[in-house]
């Protein structure tokens, strides 16, 4: 894991843009209490529409900082840093805040091992895409690092809440689900403080809480960012409430070497970025940590296999944007997703895949 002041290397940079809001009822404000801070290497924004709940904003950002400090490497008290430093040496006890995140990362690594591995750190550390020192490693470096990438060399003890990386040089990189986990924790805090209507946005991990505050509307209207364009350009929109929206895309962070472009979503088996026809995958789910984990895992499967897998999941939908400017949606979005006619994209036919 790269020793930096940022959150552990984020494999996932979701790209979802909120489009609409409004006011409804005497208990909600027309304009939300809103705050934005630059944390974890990204912009974090929380908007609360409930009257007399402005004080909850501070609590929300305090919670983000508390969790980030425990997950961020090269920070005093960083638990992930301590785990990596003790790889091949001894197990490390984790707090109640961090162990559930590590446990979920292990579960995703088990279920989607060809596309998700919590020990991808040695690979992402070498490439470091998205940072000034990004580079394409030599093949010999990648070959040397790949034996250190294997979640089966991770030992967890649920009773003691400990983790042990068996080989020296192994490194956790939980960036594929860290922002989702923190998003979910902020939502829990809002609900505990009786907030009914809010938006939580951790660098693109968006959660819309409650009904839309817009008069006469139950659902929020949420725009899906075009992964091929700058922010605030949408390919379409969906309506949603009490849900998370997360996207994995290849153009937000990349590295070009000798005319070849490499994105930041890495195959743990090869040490190189995944190579398929997908430009971006948006996941709509009940929890943001699952949107995070699935967006990376589904991206790795490619278009057809990814769509087929989504159809077998409960309460999960997906939007795929391809390199040839087509959009494919899961069956649950057929009557929901509205394409932006000016986007230059067209809806693909799933049966043609």
UniProtKB/TrEMBL annotation:
Keywords associated with the record: Cell inner membrane, Cell membrane, FAD, Flavoprotein, Lipoprotein, Magnesium, Membrane, Metal-binding, Transferase
GO MF: metal ion binding; transferase activity
Cofactors that this protein relies on: Mg(2+); Mn(2+)
Cofactor note: Magnesium. Can also use manganese.
Membrane topology: Lipid-anchor
Family membership noted in the UniProt record: Belongs to the ApbE family.
PROSITE patterns found in the cross-reference section: PROKAR_LIPOPROTEIN (PS51257)
A Gene Ontology cellular-component term: plasma membrane
EC number(s) given by UniProt: 2.7.1.180
Enzyme class: transferase
Catalytic activity: L-threonyl-[protein] + FAD = FMN-L-threonyl-[protein] + AMP + H(+)
Subcellular location: Cell inner membrane
InterPro entries: ApbE (IPR024932), ApbE-like_sf (IPR003374)
The keyword Repressor is assigned to this record: no
Main location: membrane
SUPFAM superfamilies hit by this protein: ApbE-like
Name the record gives this protein: FAD:protein FMN transferase
Function noted in UniProt: Flavin transferase that catalyzes the transfer of the FMN moiety of FAD and its covalent binding to the hydroxyl group of a threonine residue in a target flavoprotein.
Regions annotated as coiled coil: none
Binding-site positions, Mg(2+): 176, 292, 296
